[in-house]
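Look over both lines:
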Amino acid sequence: MNAPEKPRIIYNDDGSNFLYAWDDLGAEDLRSYLGYLKDTHVDMVAWCVAFGGYVTYYESQVAERLGAGFMVTDRVKQRRWAHNRERIAREVGDYCGFAFETLRELGIAPLASFRMNDAHMSSDPVGPVAGRFWMNHPQWRLGEPFGYYRSCLDYAVPAVREYLRRLVAEAVELFPDIAGVELDAMRSPFFFHEGEGEAKAPIMTAFIRQVRADLDEAAERSGRERYHLRVNVPRSPELALECGLDVAAWADEGLVDGISPGCYSTDFQVPIEAWRALVGERLLVHSYVNCGPATGQYLSVEEYRGAAANAYAAGADGVCLFNVPCVLTELPGLIARPVHDPPFPPPKFPASYWHPDITRIPEILSELGEPELLAGLDKRFLFFMEEQKYRHYSPEVAGIERVDEDAVELCWRCYEDFDAAAEVLIDLKLVSVTVRDEFAFALNGEPVAAERIERLHAPSGRDQRVHWRPLEPFSLYRITPDRAHLRRGENMLTVALTAREPDLFGRIEARELEVTVRY
């Protein structure tokens, strides 16, 4: 099956959500699991076939199969994972092969997705994702300076690149009818030792060039059109190059067909314009949209719409959805239900605590692929949601130093038709404040009148009894802006400290800027 010329939604499935969902799953369960994608805007599914320490979901002769050595274990979920994969392989020949076949029956182009440097082994170095290739070569790991991502392998080592290259070639040989391959460099974008990425980018380009050549040779042998090759990359061209990914060189040589730039968490202002300036129309650019704006949170339907609408307005060809299956299958797995109920469709997970209405999430699959449908629908846009832990997270949160009594400028983008909206609200949390701290606001240089501002205060802040992301005592400011002061595109909200608690010093954080547009 060939890739569509311009896929609307590219849908990444990590392959494990299904395997974890219930005990004793079979091929028909997998068919039912994928059935909800039929007649949606999902034109391409990137199905993960290898991750972790390069273990595979398919019947590989190059790497270990996922769950090898864990058929008898004290780990309940891992045993289920391995058992279900083996069970389906015995029934239909290959777990991934049957997934690809089912997707083709649904009219959806399948891609074999490879996580280029998955780091799950950092938290479980002896678990089922830590293959022997990874375990046998600790000297090839990037190591402690990379924190959680210390388990990532160094792509300057030829054997690391060759191992992944052989896996890609094997997958195309086993599944010649797939539409192509996704190289997921966002899991994780650490390929070289710190500070070496740009200098060693030619090494990665040579690797991409070789993969392209292998795919072209396989297509020629099969007498088919070119295999689609796409790469998920960090949010900006500069950051990608810092990681060793020279997308401009790839575009110049025609090595890849598309990219999906974004962040580990959802970025509502991916610099698509910068990517367009770099690659023009030579590559498809799909904005990479994860399932949440921050750790432990999930997007609502309105927030998915906001992320997609901003991406289209900035010039994206579509969206690449990541980890949505986690929302649709993992969360329902937290609900106890009769053991004889069918595993799919799973029970509906109701909204609770800080989560949105998860039961509505399937709606996005029939909305996000066409920007015309998004116009006039309610949306919410999220900015400055959490601190930047690693370079592939969204930009750092902003703040004000108390002793300086300076102002902070919060830049955010929104391309909605504000004049046509029934309601526009701007919410902002200022963290580590008392009720005696006072602030003034300006929108695009225009002062916000006091009557347009409502202040609420949380004296105890926020902890994990009510939200995954704790905050120190904060005030929530709700602004009803003058429409005349809003711009379609880039906006600037300026926050100035006008009176402060005299006995306090330190930083006041500006967090969780939310823009709600209702029609």
About this structure: The domain at 397-518 is CATH 2.60.120 (Jelly Rolls). The chain has two domains: 9-378, 397-518. The CA atoms of residues 17 and 225 lie 31 Å apart.
